[in-house]
């Protein structure tokens, strides 16, 4: 579990006792690909830290079309922030794309850690702020960039995912149909 400690220590330093306390509050689970670990309509009770593998969050609209919100690779956090913070039913699914080992930090344990290690509030505040900035940037990109430009940004942000994630999920993430994505990618490769 050293990876999660390294992730936290990118922002703040921890004593050995604090590290042990954090690790004692985390549950480690292994999931097979295609496992849905959170369903829309459920209350998100955990923050998920990806130790290995790939997870994605998405929702499904009334026309049964998936909209991928986020991918999370090794050393990334993922969750349904709305549901986790409000403790109301969320609208996101979180699915395992590739066999994964995931650290689960329950909301209750996270709150306990805030009391026992107050500086962890700063860590999670920074994570939340970074998430807000990324989502705002993505929204602005969807409003102002072409599909090709959004795909290029995706390639920059997630260089390891291009070969690991189905093209229809990449298409969904950048906001185009799989058919348009295939044509666009073929056109880009010819350049």
Automatic annotation (TrEMBL):
Name any one Pfam family assigned in the record: cNMP_binding
Q: Which InterPro entries match?
A: cNMP-bd_dom, cNMP-bd_dom_sf, RmlC-like_jellyroll
Cyclic nucleotide-binding domain spans which residues?
10-113
Could you identify this protein by its name? Crp/Fnr family transcriptional regulator
């Amino acid at each position: 579990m050293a990876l999660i400690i390294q992730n936290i220590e990118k922002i703040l330093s921890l004593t050995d006792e604090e590290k042990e306390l954090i690790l004692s509050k985390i549950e480690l689970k292994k999931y097979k690909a295609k496992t849905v670990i959170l369903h829309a309509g459920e209350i998100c009770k955990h923050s998920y830290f990806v130790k290995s593998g790939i997870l994605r969050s998405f929702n499904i609209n009334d026309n049964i079309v998936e909209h991928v919100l986020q991918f999370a690779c090794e050393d990334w956090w993922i969750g349904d922030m709305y549901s986790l913070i409000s403790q109301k039913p969320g609208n996101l699914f979180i699915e395992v794309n590739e066999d994964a080992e995931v650290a689960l930090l329950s909301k209750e344990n996270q709150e306990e850690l805030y009391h026992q290690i107050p500086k962890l509030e700063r860590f999670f505040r920074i994570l939340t702020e970074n998430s807000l900035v990324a989502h705002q940037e993505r929204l602005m990109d969807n409003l102002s960039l072409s599909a090709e430009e959004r795909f290029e940004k995706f390639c920059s942000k997630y260089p390891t995912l291009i070969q690991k994630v189905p093209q229809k999920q990449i298409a969904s993430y950048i906001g185009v149909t799989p058919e348009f994505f295939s044509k666009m990618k073929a056109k880009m490769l010819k350049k």
